[in-house]
Specification:
By secondary structure, the chain is an alpha/beta fold. Helices cover 36% and strands 16% of the residues. The protein has a 4-stranded parallel sheet with strand order 3-2-4-5, with helices on both faces.
Length: 410
């Protein structure tokens, strides 16, 4: 493994485990594929204010190392090339162009961030390079008519926001006239998606309940002033849809102010290790989020086969990583999805077939998804996961409650 701005997990000289190398005359390949390897490109903020997400990139690399150690996919090793873009969109453009034009990757996979994906979306679609399973829940990733080479993976932010809003209304029916809702959001498309979904969930007749809608910039050193502003608006409910660093700051500030709102936290910052522990478990108790992956700090999953396999993978491939960081679970599950799609391509490893297989998943179950949650796509539906469960932090673990909720039920 090389230095952090470029990790490659390439085919070695060792003979393949499951199939010896044979030239296959009938193979159909696009750039980035040979009989021996498949190149996947990726960027991640390993540095900068959102470096907490660097865990995901490291774990994805470890997943492909596991796959390679088992013989690869249909006899081909995965060459995973990842660069540090620092969550700076111009840097992302530079790195993605390098991946496509110099490294000649087969696809861009799991590129992290809404603004960073936005600045390369048109370029990748013009080049007909798959932009697959984006690490962002912005609703714009599900638009196959305009961007047929782009697909998200996790539940979209607008649906998640609407689910929180409907839960607020359902649990405060008797006191709606006194309810006041404050919203903290990141000033970019992801934050606006969350807030738009929340407002849609409230309905026009209830938008009057919002007493403050306050944004912050990724580069802001703290969000203390924003939390003070929201508290001073009289808010009794807080929708905290911030990145991990800002979310932890917000949780701490709420406690410091001795403010006791009903606190909803966006799933992107629901990591026990990266957010709740730094914020303080006492300060985090009672917070509600939407979950679609198993919480590895929850002992109820201890006997599940996929959980045990995940634990074994962590011990072997990420021995120094924090097992309580949900980024490691996320990386494992999304990479299992990509493995499924690449396997389904067989020897027709063209970019068009990759997108065809990605748009043909039906009730797919991958490791570490919550029971009852499956992956479904079609040529007109580029939203792989559209179901969640609500969970409340009990001071140690996320405790699930209620039924599976989806875009239809929201």
């Amino acid at each position: 493994m090389s230095k952090i701005n470029r990790r490659e997990f390439a085919a070695g000289s060792t003979a393949l485990v499951f199939a010896p190398y044979l030239a296959r005359a009938d193979n159909k390949y696009d750039p980035g594929v040979t009989d021996k390897e498949i190149k996947l490109g990726h960027t991640n903020p390993y540095s900068g204010p959102l470096s907490a997400y660097g865990t995901i990139g490291k774990a994805i690399g470890a997943y492909w190392q596991m796959v390679n150690d088992k013989g690869g996919i249909n006899g081909r090793k995965i060459n995973f090339i990842t660069y540090d873009d620092g969550f700076v969109p111009p840097k992302t453009v530079e790195m993605v162009r390098k991946l496509v034009e110099a490294d000649q990757v087969f696809a861009i996979y799991q590129l992290l961030g809404t603004p960073t994906n936005t600045v390369v979306q048109k370029y990748l679609n013009q080049k007909k390079v798959p932009q697959l399973f984006i690490a962002s829940g912005a609703s714009k990733w599900g638009n196959p008519k305009e961007f047929p080479w782009t697909m998200g993976w996790q539940p979209d932010y607008a649906t998640e926001g609407a689910i929180y809003a409907k839960h607020v209304l359902a649990t405060h029916k008797e006191e709606l006239k006194d309810l006041r809702i404050g919203m903290l959001y990141q000033n970019d498309d992801s934050g606006k998606d969350y807030t738009a979904g929340f407002l849609k969930g409230l309905g026009k007749e209830n938008e009057r309940l919002v007493s403050a809608k306050v944004s912050y910039e990724v580069t802001d050193p703290t969000v203390d002033s924003q939390i003070i502003q929201i508290k001073n608006s009289g808010a009794t409910v807080l929708f905290n849809n911030a990145n991990p660093k800002a979310a932890a700051q917000a949780i701490r500030k709420v406690a410091e102010l001795n403010w006791k709102p009903v606190h909803y936290l966006g799933n992107v910052s629901a990591s026990v290790a990266a957010v709740l522990k730094p914020a303080g478990f006492d300060n985090s108790t009672g917070i509600i989020t939407a979950a679609y992956l198993k919480d590895v700090t929850d002992p109820q999953w201890g006997n599940d086969a996929d959980f045990k396999e995940w634990q074994a993978w962590m011990r072997k491939y990420l021995p120094d990583a924090n097992p309580a960081d949900s980024g490691n679970v996320y990386a494992y599950a999304v990479s299992a999805t990509m493995q499924h799609v690449l396997t389904a391509c067989g020897d027709e490893l063209t970019r068009a077939n990759l997108m065809k297989q990605a748009a043909s998943m039906h009730n797919l179950e991958v490791p570490m998804l919550l029971p009852g949650i499956r992956i479904n796509t079609s040529p007109t539906d580029f939203y792989p996961i559209q179901a969640v469960r609500l969970a409340r932090f009990d001071g140690a673990n996320w405790s699930l409650f209620g039924n599976v909720l989806s875009s239809e039920s929201s």
